[in-house]
Fold this sequence. Notes:
Elements lengths: L1 E7 L5 H14 L3 E6 L7 H4 L5 H10 L1 E4 L13 H8 L4 E7 L12 E7 L9 E2 L4 H14 L9 E2 L5 H17 L4 E6 L8 H12 L6 E6 H10 L6 E4 L1 H14 L9 E3 L4 E3 L18 H14 L2 H17 L19 H10 L2
Parallel strand pairs: 1-2, 1-3, 3-12, 5-10, 8-9, 8-10
Antiparallel strand pairs: 4-5, 4-11, 6-7, 11-12
Bound molecules: nicotinamide-adenine-dinucleotide (NAD).
Amino acid sequence: MVYKITLIPGDGIGPEVSNAARRCVDATGVKIDWEIAEAGADVIDKYGTPLPDSTLASIRKNKVALKGPLTTPIGTGFRSVNVAIRKELDLYACLRPTRSYKGVRSRYENIDLVIVRENTEDLYAGIEFEEGKPETKELIGAIERLAKKKIRADSGISIKPISIKGSKRIVKFAFDYAVKHGRKKVTAISKANIMKFTDGLFFKAAQEVAKEYPGVEYEERLIDNMCMQLVQKPELYDVLCLPNLYGDILSDLCAGLIGGLGIAPGANHGDEIAVFEAIHGSAPKYAGQNKVNPVAMILSAVLMLDHLGEKAAAQRLDKAVAKVIAAGKSVTYDLKPDRNDPTAVSTSQMADAIIAAL
Ligand code: NAD
């Protein structure tokens, strides 16, 4: 069987790591007809938008995409294309398995956590009111009337919607993942003691869903306490399920537990469509140098192979990555004991070594 899959190379370091991942997947022998689709700042002149309809149409048609990172200008310019893809395709579940690989320098060993982050709601809904604008003044007036609370006139406001539907489906995703992958426990995380009507609602929805899964343990933690717990005793946790913003922050914390963003993969799932991408961004300062670590992107492709049902190929590629990292020879600068180690190999050479280890 030949799978048709959308490949978005991305920008910055995106094309380098995407190409490495594509070559590794092809080397497993799984037959893939890659459909290249463009997105990002570089294509605005050509399409008038950083997210062309043709790219979304390709993902909708193929149902599976592998995506390189895309740059988001800070403060000004367009909104994140990464967030837009997730919203347009209703990819509500962001899956981020975080596992230690032998040979990666880290303060921790044997980390094996899975983050399930809600992807469509919360402060990431993109509903923002700029300081000083007439509509912001109107909103401040309405809030003062309705909530009887004072807001400073020179405030900007971001809205945090969290729904029962959105919460239930992400928690259900976390439990289904736990059942499918033999996981024992789901921990729901929020700040329900302060934000009762959003984070409190998230916990309430989670408790209802948890009742449907008597075989999986369920517990709750507050996000601030969870940060400390993960640093002190990460071995107590298994699948972590969070609203959007907390999930984003905890993903980076967990990437730190396993030795950094260079080896942390991810996936964005909807009911039918899935887009696989590393947690890391486009690291513009390294763009075009063939220098960065391709492993996060290659492990995202491992998740993709698993999703396609190509379990044997997924396991072979995962083992090949582990072998090359453990050997410590053909690895990029970030995996060497000294970042200036002259024996560090390039992005493409590390992919070559992984392919040779398959
Ligand atoms: P980043 O992840 O791009 O880079 C931060 C640092 O992490 C880099 O300077 C580098 O030291 C290290 N790093 C990242 N990837 C690495 C790799 N593969 N190998 C070795 N080291 C690596 O984060 P940033 O600098 O905050 O963001 C840069 C741009 O990427 C921003 O425009 C941001 O919006 C975007 N971004 C995109 C995505 C996505 O496409 N899903 C995700 C995060 C950030």
